[in-house]
Amino acid sequence: MEVSRARIAGVNSRIKVVRTGLTASAALPGSPPDQRAASELALDRIILGDCLAELQRLPSQSVDLVFADPPYNLQLEGALTRPDHSHVDAVDDDWDKFDSFAEYDAFTRAWLAECRRVLKPDGALWVIGSYHNVFRVGAILQDLGYWILNDIVWRKANPMPNFRGRRFTNAHETLIWATPTRSKRYTFHYEALKGGNDDLQMRSDWFIPLCTGDERLKDAGGRKVHPTQKPEALLARVLLSSSNPGDVVLDPFLGSGTSAAVAKKLGRRFIGIERDPVYARAAQQRVDAAAPVDPQAFAAAPAKRSEPRVAFLSLIEAGLIAPGEMLEDERRRHKALVRADGTLQLGPAVGSIHKIGALSQGLPSCNGWTYWMIERNGQRLHIDALRGEYRQTHRAAA
Ligand SMILES: C[S@@+](CC[C@H](N)C(=O)[O-])C[C@H]1O[C@@H](n2cnc3c(N)ncnc32)[C@H](O)[C@@H]1O
User: Fold this and answer.
1) Cβ of 114 less than 6 Å from ligand 1
2) Which one of 25, 43, 91, 279 is most buried, by most CB atoms within 10 A?
3) 3-state secondary structure 21-59
4) Is 164 in a helix, a strand, or coil?
5) How many Cα atoms sit within 13 Å of 349 on the Cβ side?
6) Computed from CA positions of residues 267, 43, 226, 115, in that sequence, does the dihedral angle turn out positive or negative?
7) According to the model, what pLDDT value does residue 385 have?
């Protein structure tokens, strides 16, 4: 597994790779982990080195999100060819080879334990893997005390066929999303994801194409720079769903730098560790070329649940709705009278906007804010829009 020292020493000096950005005192050999100060974390850098050694130099509880795309331990049996006998460019690199499952497990346990130490208690771990390794990784991270929130199936739009026709086409990879402890305070931008998904909850199966075309890094000879470069869309979804602008993203297996480039584009800070100098250099060039998106475009939208609660009565008190007005459902099947005390009346029944909304449909519950409509300037709008207006006025006044 070791890349020879001569290879590392021969790294091009132009490359802006830093061995460590920590001060001498923070990185003193033998310092116990709890004495490494979080304030001394150097950010937005690619570290050339072995992640097991380099992770140990990072301060405890200093990172918001770890994205790890570790060796898969693919266990390939001989060269793979297409029906026309052409060679399939499979992952057969040294960095992916382990002598036994026991060796792979020990390696996995070591880096996962270090990541758990450097993660903030409310931080998040994402690991991507295939059937070759993801079950081992999942069991080990649970044994270490991580708490799994979801597993995501990344369904590939354009997977490689099964050339031998002996198994199903391997068309997905799995991402595990976990917290280092059983915390409820992890970041999840539920509303934003739903908004970007035609107002449907974002599901745990993501349909995203493989990294191809201009996004795929190629060398001067037109060969892929890295065999397992992940699509930026996949990383963007990970970062947008479970981190905030300014958060620190750590990738212990940086490869071609996908996570770092996306972090930079989306206003996150990053630390990447990569053992191979060729990949590290390519990653640095890629990060240097990545242009940050306008911060307005990724500023976190306020989650609905974190918005201040507004009572329907407050809208009446603020003059946005008058007692005696009528509310209707979208299809104009039910009309309810707005009463001065903030309740609605439908026939003999009186109750909250939610209760009367539910009653009118014969349902156990209803969100009255998105059910009832009112007319304003010849247009019909949901009363939720008036709630938004109320919130805006009161935020501005605060
Ligand atoms: C699956 S690839 C990551 C690909 C990356 N996500 C991308 O989009 O390009 C794994 C990377 O980890 C690196 N690697 C393997 N073992 C390592 C170790 N012990 N420390 C640091 N890097 C390592 C390999 O050189 C390889 O580039």
Assistant:
1) no
2) 279
3) CCCCCCCCCCCCHHHCCHHHCCCCEEEECCHHHHHHCCC
4) coil
5) 14
6) negative
7) 94
Structure tokens at 143: 């044994």
pLDDT tens digits along 347-366: 999 999 999 999 999 999 99
Residue 127 C-alpha to ligand 1 middle, in angstroms? 12
Q: How many residues does the chain have?
A: 398
Q: Which amino acid is at 156?
A: K
CB 258 near ligand 1, within 6 Å: yes
User: Cβ contacts of residue 126 below 8 Å, gap of 6+?
Assistant: 65, 66, 67, 68, 175, 176, 177, 178, 238, 242
pLDDT at 77: 61
Q: Report d(CA 138, CA 142) in Å as an integer.
A: 6
In the sheet where 372-376 sits, what is the strand order? Answer: 349-351, 344-346, 335-338, 326-329, 372-376, 379-382
Query: Which residues in the chain land under pLDDT 50?
Result: 1-35, 38-39
What per-residue confidence (pLDDT) applies to 50? 97
Say if ligand 1 is within 6 A of residue 275 CB: yes
Q: Say what the pLDDT of residue 309 is.
A: 86
- Report the pLDDT value the prediction gives residue 181, as an integer from 0 to 100: 96
Beta bridge partners of 124: 65
